[in-house]
TrEMBL record:
Pfam families: NUDIX. One of its GO terms (molecular function) is catalytic activity. This is NUDIX domain-containing protein. Transmembrane segments: none annotated. It comes from the Bacteria. It comes from Baekduia soli. Residues 31-131 form the Nudix hydrolase domain.
Amino acid sequence: MDDELLDVVDEHGRRLGTKRRGDVHRDGDWHLAFHLWVVGPGGVLLQRRAQAKASWPGRLDASAAGHLTAGESVADGLREVEEELGVTYRMDELHALGMHRVDEVANRELQHVFAVRDDRPLTAWTDFDRVELDGLVLVAHAAFAALVNGSPAPARSWDGTHAGDVTVGPGDLVPTPYLSALVPDLERVAATGPR
């Protein structure tokens, strides 16, 4: 994984060259990522990152997220969705929510962020990658807004075999500085109906 090549970009997304992923993170280079938030009438679908992940193990993250490898377009980020969630979407089904900057010491990403409405119930997500993800968590829209603003929230958890009620807190989330700004957009996409 550390050997995969990523495009190194400047803070505006202009390509500067390529580097191994491990070197990009070590050196704090800007690089590109793709994030998809799946929403529906029941709320926001989050992935629980596997405990074996090198970064943010066990934390809740966007429904599907990952690096764009060297030479990939933003649309190629849909590969991450198929790999992680086991579903396929087309770009014309997605709602673009902008490019957001995450500027951390070991992770400087320009994240191309999208949302999609998908009405399937939590337990219908049966093809997610059980190596990359420990499961999925569904948080109702009002509870998600409270969660990203610092309050614990009730949720439903699904590991592919068992579903149950859980409470998640802000410390369970992968730090995402722009997350509270996405709440109205995610609610808007959920209200639009499937494309």
